[in-house]
Structure formats: structure tokens, C-alpha cells
Amino acid sequence: MEIVTIRLREYFSDATTVEKAIISFITQNAKNVTKMSIHKLSLETFTSPSSIIRLCKKMDLMVIKGL
Hints:
Elements: H1 2-11, H2 17-28, H3 30-33, H4 38-45, H5 49-58
Helix pairs in contact: 4-5
């Protein structure tokens, strides 16, 4: 997870507003996020599951937990 948070922090300045909300939550709650579903993460960040999936694809991260 540490490598993921580093990559997300590096991308942060180029991210959209929605992506920044997701990245901020993930970096501040890294241990808890690993246990969350995409749906739960979207509720916590006030974003859509699609936005999270797009960010994961853009960052070339595997989406492990489904909706």
C-alpha cells in the first residue's frame, strides 16, 4: 500500500478535483481503505464508484474489491 500512496501523492498535482478528494482520503486512511469496497470508498469520499475505478485505471492499479 505504501507504493500506491506514493504514486497517488506524485499524481495529486495533476489530478482533477474529484480525484484529489479520493487521493486525499486514501492517503489519510491507507490502512482502512485496504478493507473497503469501492462502494464504501465512494460513500466516504462523496464520489461515484466509477470515479474510483477510473482513477485506478489511470494509475494502473488493480481494482480488487467490487461493488
